[in-house]
Write a structure and sequence with these properties.
alpha+beta, four-stranded antiparallel sheet, 6 strands
């Protein structure tokens, strides 16, 4: 369940807000000599201004490939090559776009909540099987199920809080 929450946090880092964040592009895959390589392994990423990401490739010959990958991605951003670096301006989001992103965030969070409920289901099934095969007592099974339900609620609440914070960040101008 902890991994599920961490996965969601990583996913949210890649969601575009009005501010520049290297999380938008760091895991983007770039065709580099025939293999798909994450951008963070090919370049140093930094925030030049509040609304601009600066990408400095370790290999200057990869600038064109990085530029092409950013243009063809679904981020909707236009990179500007500047010698051996790429500047990626982050334009402000329209209200309609903010609403779409908020809906996308809710959907992503719900998928992780489903994953947590599946973990709960599997753990409860395992407890039932252990009780049937006399490995644990009925009381132990019931206590285990209560503990699992408490953990499920705790992690679902964490997801709700992360979602609330991210939506607040997206909706800020």
């Amino acid at each position: 369940m902890t991994k599920t929450v961490q996965f969601l946090e990583d996913e949210f880092r890649g969601v575009r807000t009005g501010r520049a964040s290297t999380g938008l592009v760091e895991n983007m895959k770039i065709d580099y000599y025939g293999s798909m390589t994450p951008l963070k392994q090919m370049a140093s990423l930094s925030i030049a201004e509040a609304t601009q990401i600066l990408i400095k490739p370790f290999d200057p010959s990869s600038v064109k490939n990085i530029e092409k990958a950013i243009k063809t991605s679904d981020l909707g951003l236009t990179p500007m090559a500047d010698g051996g670096t790429i500047r990626l301006p982050i334009p402000p989001l329209s209200e309609e776009r903010r609403q779409k992103i908020a809906a996308q965030l809710k959907q992503m969070a719900e998928q992780q909540k489903i994953a947590i409920r599946n973990i709960r289901r599997d753990a409860n099934k395992q407890l039932d099987d252990e009780e049937k095969s006399k490995v644990i007592t009925e009381d132990d099974r019931d206590k285990g199920k209560k503990d699992i339900d408490d953990m499920t609620k705790k992690y679902s609440d964490q997801i709700d809080n992360i979602l609330k914070d991210k939506i607040k960040e997206v909706m800020e101008e």
